[in-house]
Amino acid sequence: MYHVSHEGSYLSFDGTAVVSPIATETHGPAMDTLVGAFCAVSGKDHPDWDEFRNAMVRERRRAIIVTPTNAIGLIRPVWR
Q: pTM surpassing 0.70?
């Protein structure tokens, strides 16, 4: 079970998770996963892909891809 909460809202879900390999090179399957994750979350391209790729290798980054099978939660509006 996974749980995410933020400012009074929460989401709990069951599912499966796959951990990508560690990025050890600036091009390849592991980096493709990290680039795809960045674009999916940010909704835009990175301003400097070389910087991004080098940082992912230097920091030995990896992605966790979660496929939910069941979810429950509560979304509270945030007034600003």
A: yes
User: What would the DSSP string read from start to end of the chain?
Assistant: -EEEEETTEEEEEEEEEEEPPP--SSSSHHHHHHHHHHHHHHSS--S-HHHHHHHHHHTT---EEEEEEEEEEE------
pLDDT at 77: 80
Mark whether 13 and 44 lie in a shared domain: no
Residues 37 and 51 in one domain: yes
Q: State how far the Cα of 57 lies from the Cα of 48, in Å rounded to an integer.
A: 15
